[in-house]
Amino acid sequence: MHFGNHKPSNRNAFTLVELLVVIAIIGVLVGLLLPAVQAAREAARRMQCSNNLRQVGLACHTYHGSLNTLPPGRLVYDGIGSTGNPTKVVTGFLAMVLPFMEGSNLHDIYNQHYGFDDIANQPAVNQQVPSFSCPSSPSDGVMPIYSGWNVGWTTDVSALPNITAIASDYQGVRGLHHLQQSTSGGKVHVWDEDCGILNETGSRFADILDGTSQTILLFEMAGKPKHWNQGKQQPDPTNAQFYAYGPWAGNNGVGIYNWSQDGTTKGCDTCERFINVDNEASPYAFHPGVVMIVLADGSTRTLSETVSPDIFSNLSRKNDHNVIGDY
After folding, report:
1. Are strands 170-181 and 216-220 parallel, antiparallel or unpaired?
2. pLDDT value at 3 more than 60
3. Transmembrane stretches, by residue range (predicted)?
4. What pLDDT, on the 0 to 100 scale, is given for residue 146?
5. Are β-strands 253-256 and 170-181 bridged in parallel, bridged antiparallel, or unpaired?
6. Is residue 275 part of a domain?
7. In this model, does residue 2 exceed pLDDT 90?
8. Which residues, 6+ apart, have CB-to-CB distance to 192 below 8 Å?
9. What letter would DSSP give residue 69?
10. C-alpha neighbours within 13 Å on the C-beta side of residue 38
11. Gap between the Cα atoms of 244 and 210, Å rounded
12. Domain count, the chain
């Protein structure tokens, strides 16, 4: 019987060992590429955040060009609400610069005669303004409205009115809690109420004696309405005053707080931390290790969370006459 020659058949499948090797190689490649992709995405988000801050800063400059003053961080005055009843009218600087921002039509909707907490302005204050939000922030931005002048200086969250607003991730410097050398040789906590550019009366460029390139105009305070502390989301606030800062149309001139090293205490005689500690009333961002700021000359910068507290204090105050070194 004749048997023909048999050629070995071509193998069209992987062995189990080969398949496992390929999977391992793919896993290693993904592990190498994923951090690079995430870093590239964060770099793009940070650039967009910088552009947003620059746009708001330029709007403040245009405001000054028209009115010969920068806007106050907030306006609070006696007026009449949309219901006809006497009230305190409260409006923040972001609402004031709306007419000077390209592409914003909210100035036609937001009624400057009424406060940000007036029911007539609910359609406006609940609209998202892309230029007021950092793309790295995880917040949806919808937060309760707290206006102590009208609801009383309550700490009770249940006492807040049933109205909301969209938060801004960018705020202005009104005042500063910081440490100051005492006559006894140590440091004590002090409160400079209107030392910032966006104080309650507004500032002219001529008032910025330290120089516009040496003074903060705006800074990031992102993540509202959620409470964040040192990179961790906290339980929902039980103190209504947490919501005093946040809405883009509201109280935007912040009295910035200093914090203890462990991030649990604010405004104490040993509190020297400012950045990326807590987002209640301090600079806070979701960019690794930094916050974005815009200086009074319109330039944007990153500010490291490890920057000296003295340098941050000097940058925040417009006429302390202190020399600022490299940062």
Report:
1. antiparallel
2. no
3. none
4. 97
5. parallel
6. yes
7. no
8. 175, 176, 178, 317
9. S
10. 8
11. 29
12. 1
Query: Looking at residues 265-288, what average pLDDT do you find?
Result: 97
Question: How far apart are the C-alpha atoms of 106 and 122, rounded to whole Å?
Answer: 12
Rounded CA-CA distance 48/42 in Å is: 10
**DSSP β-bridge partners for residue 172:** 218, 253
pLDDT exceeds 90 at position 163: yes
Is the pLDDT at 37 greater than 70, yes or no? no
- Structure-token pair, residue 65: 């060009």
Cα separation, 97 vs 21, in Å, equals: 60
List b or e across 268-284, with b for residues whose CB sees 16 or more CB atoms inside 10 angstroms. beebbbbbbbbbbbbbb
What is the enclosing helix (H) or strand (E) of 310? helix 309-316
- 216 Cβ neighbours under 8 A, 6+ residues apart: 173, 196, 197, 293, 294, 295, 296, 315, 316
Residue 8 pLDDT grade (very low, low, confident, very high; cuts 50, 70, 90): low
Retrieve residue 25's tokens.
């190689």
Identify whether 5 is part of a domain.
no
Using CA atoms, how far apart are residues 167 and 75, in angstroms rounded to an integer? Answer: 18
Q: How many residues does the chain have?
A: 327
Q: What's residue 14's pLDDT?
A: 64
Closest CA to 92 of 299, 244, 239: 244
Does 43 fall in a domain?
Answer: yes
- Condensed to tens digits (0 to 9), the pLDDT of residues 223-236 reads 999 999 999 999 99
* Nearest residue to 141 via CA among 151, 153, 129: 129
User: Mean of the pLDDT values across residues 245-272?
Assistant: 96
User: Which residues neighbour 22 within 8 Å (Cβ) at sequence distance 6 or greater?
Assistant: 14
Q: Is residue 2 part of a domain?
A: no
pLDDT at 1 over 70: no
CA distance 295 to 316: 10
**100: containing domain:** 18-326
Lowest mean pLDDT among 100-109, 117-126, 266-275, 288-297: 100-109
* Residue 313: closest CA among 173, 170, 169, 171: 173
Residue recorded with tokens 């947490």: 242
